[in-house]
Design a protein that fits this description.
Elements (H helix, E strand, L loop, with lengths): L5 E5 L4 E10 L2 E9 L8 E5 L2 E9 L6 E7 L5 E3 L2 E5 L5 E8 L4 E5 L6 E3 L8 E6 L11
Antiparallel strand pairs: 1-2, 1-6, 2-3, 3-5, 4-5, 6-7, 8-9, 8-12, 9-10, 10-11
Length: 143
C-alpha cells in the first residue's frame, strides 16, 4: 500500500509537520498523528485499539505543502514534492521535485523546460536532498 502523506511548514511553531492534508475555507492544515501515552494539557486524546492516539492540527503555509513521492534519497530520507535534489553522476545536476498532472506523476525538473526525468527512473543511490523550494538550499525538511 502507498504511503500517502504530506508535509508543510508551520509558522507558529517554526517546524515541519507531516501527516494528512486538510483544506477548510482556503486555509490549509496538516493533521499529525502520534501513537502512545501522552499527558499534556490542551491536547486531544483518542483512546482505542488498546492505546492512546494524539492528533494535532497544524495550520501550514500553502507554499510549503508537498506530497511524499514514495521515493527515498541515498541517505534514506523521504523525497517530497518541492524538494531540491542533487543527482550526482560524474557531474551532478540540481533538480526540483514537481508533480506534473498531465503526466500523472512526480518528475525532477530544472529551469530548462526541456530537461526533466520521471522521478521513478532515477536510482536513489545517486540522489540527495539538498533543500526545498520553500526554505531554499539552506534547510531540509524531512521526517
Amino acid at each position: 500500500m502507498r504511503d500517502i502523506k504530506f508535509r508543510g511548514y508551520t509558522q507558529s511553531d517554526k517546524k515541519w509537520v507531516f501527516g494528512t492534508l486538510i483544506e477548510k475555507d482556503g486555509v490549509y492544515y496538516i493533521l499529525e498523528q502520534a501513537i502512545g501515552l501522552y499527558e499534556k494539557d490542551n491536547k486531544t486524546f483518542y483512546s482505542g485499539l488498546g492505546g492512546r492516539f494524539r492528533f494535532e492540527l497544524h495550520k501550514v503555509e500553502v507554499e510549503s505543502i508537498g506530497q511524499f513521492t514514495g521515493l527515498m534519497d541515498k541517505k534514506g530520507a523521504k523525497i517530497y514534492e518541492g524538494d531540491i535534489i542533487k543527482i550526482g553522476w560524474s557531474e551532478p545536476f540540481i533538480y526540483r521535485v514537481v508533480y506534473k498532472p498531465d503526466k500523472g506523476c512526480f518528475v525532477y525538473e530544472t529551469d530548462r523546460t526541456d530537461r526533466w526525468f520521471y522521478a521513478h527512473e532515477i536510482y536513489s543511490v545517486v540522489t540527495e536532498i539538498i533543500g526545498n523550494t520553500y526554505a531554499g538550499i539552506i534547510q531540509k525538511g524531512g521526517d
